[in-house]
Structures are given as C-alpha cells and as structure tokens.
Write a structure and sequence with these properties.
- With 189 residues, this protein is mostly helical.
- The protein is 66% helix and 0% strand.
- The chain starts with a helix and ends in a 27-residue tail after the last helix.
- Homododecamer. The 12 identical subunits form a hollow sphere into which the mineral iron core of up to 300 Fe(3+) can be deposited.
- It is found in: Cytoplasm, Nucleoid.
C-alpha cells in the first residue's frame, strides 16, 4: 500500500487515527440507525398535534441520513470501513437506539426520544471536533458542519417540548441540510 501523506500529516499533528476511525464509525452508525428509527417515530406522529410535527421529524431524519453520507467517505479516506454486517454496524453505533416509546400516542414521549438522540449526536460529533480541531481540518470541517445541524435539531425538539423559542425555520425542501446537504456543498443528492 502506498504511503498516504494525508494520514502522515494528521498523525504528526497528534491525531490517534485508530481512535478517530472508531469514533467516526460509531458516529455514522448512530446517524444510520437514527435515520431508520426516525422513520418509525415519524410514522407514529399522529393526530392534529402529531401531523404538525411530522415535517420537522422528516427534516431531522433526512438530514441525519445526509450526515451519514457526508462522513462515510472520510472514514474510508482515513483507512476505516463500514462493517460488512449491518447487525454489527448497528451494535457499535455511538448512540442508543431511538426506539418508539411504549406510550407513543403521547407526542411528548416521541419528542423526548428525538431530543435524546440529537443530544447524543451532539456529544458524539463534539468528541470528533475536539479530537481534530487544529489537527485534521478535513474531518473537523465535516464534523462541525454535522454539529451545526444537530444543534439545530436539538433546539427544534426543545422548542416543541418546552414551548421555548428557537431558531427553527422551515427548510426550503425536505432534507435540505443547509450545512451538510445539497446547499452545504458536502454531498449532492
């Protein structure tokens, strides 16, 4: 295998590449499983109150898929790879599964699951940002863009749970991902 200068540089800058690969693999695992679970959660947002929340859940769901798509190429560039077995992939995800709550008819129960998932993602990508800041600009850039959207998602669900104002705005189209998607220049759907 040829010498990869990009890896040489970030190792020289003090990045533990093996640890970074594990963190990214866990992070993209969480994004992938969150996309799956948000599909289920969205489907259970029913009734007058739930119908108004479906679109917000859909934005977060598609943007989480975009986060997966944005970071996976970097995982491979670093010498990592997605596990070949999806069960293993889901088991090593960096955040707990966002299961549909038993009392799903209470929309606040669903919102609490969504909020917990976003808060875990913020912690996960924050760790990647902390590890790469000033040492690995490419990974840092992708992770901080993901963080920007995860922080927005957290604010959306806090707003819905607490009636606290947030910066939530309607996306131009579902899954816009202003920081990592079609408008954010990292991926193009």
């Amino acid at each position: 295998m040829p010498n990869i200068v990009a890896l040489e540089v970030i190792r020289k800058n003090g990045v533990d590449v093996d640890k970074l690969i594990k963190l990214i693999t866990a992070g993209v695992g969480a994004e992938f499983t969150t996309y799956y679970y948000y599909t289920i959660l969205r489907m259970h947002c029913t009734g007058l109150e739930g119908e108004g929340i479906k679109e917000i859940v859909e934005d977060a769901r598609i943007e989480d898929r975009n986060h997966f798509e944005a970071m996976v190429p970097r995982l491979y560039e670093l010498g990592g790879a997605l596990p070949r077995d999806i069960r293993k992939f889901a088991d090593q995800a960096g955040c707990p599964d966002a299961y549909l709550p038993e009392n799903w008819e209470d929309i606040n129960s669903i919102l609490k699951v969504l909020l917990a998932a976003e808060q875990c993602a913020i912690r996960s990508w924050g760790e990647v940002c902390d590890m790469t800041a000033g040492k690995d600009p490419r990974t840092y850039d992708i992770a901080q863009r993901i963080m920007q959207e995860e922080v927005e998602h957290e604010a959306w669900f806090i707003e819905l749970l607490s009636k606290r104002p947030s910066g939530h705005f309607r996306r131009k189209f579902a899954g816009q991902s202003p920081h990592t998607g079609a408008q954010g220049s990292l991926i193009h759907l």
